[in-house]
Backbone:
């Protein structure tokens, strides 16, 4: 029963440059190997959501960021494992060129390509939402 599963809070950044989105592929030796995701990670106890995302993006991609508003929130149950509360934030400004520190690969892709990638199940609802949402205009310094 899913209600007895532990819940993990995960934050992720929606990073855009012009009409392309930054997506990351999990390493082949990681859980959910070679699945695509938006960059981010687990929130540490006592850590504010935006601070957690800022830390994760610096660790994973080597960029400094200004975290914008929360864009989307959902819960996904991974049967017999855990429930993930996924909180996606717009990253309105980032400084530096994203570098791959922990992934199999990173890519900039147009919105139309997102549904064709093998994303984590928890991201599917967000990808459908992005196809219908009005987009804020991020910037890169």
Residues:
């Amino acid at each position: 029963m899913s209600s007895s599963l532990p819940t993990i809070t995960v934050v992720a950044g929606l990073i855009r440059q012009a009409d392309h989105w930054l997506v990351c592929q999990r390493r082949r030796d990681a859980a959910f190997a070679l699945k695509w995701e938006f960059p981010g990670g687990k929130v540490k106890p006592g850590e504010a959501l935006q601070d957690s995302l800022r830390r994760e993006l610096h660790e994973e991609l080597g960029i400094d960021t200004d975290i914008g508003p929360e864009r989307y929130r959902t819960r996904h149950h991974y049967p017999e494992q855990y429930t993930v509360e996924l909180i996606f934030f717009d990253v309105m400004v980032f400084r530096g060129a994203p570098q791959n520190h922990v992934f199999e690969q990173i890519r900039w892709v147009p919105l139309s390509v997102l549904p064709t990638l093998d994303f984590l199940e928890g991201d599917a609802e967000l990808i459908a939402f992005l196809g219908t949402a009005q987009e804020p205009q991020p910037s890169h310094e």
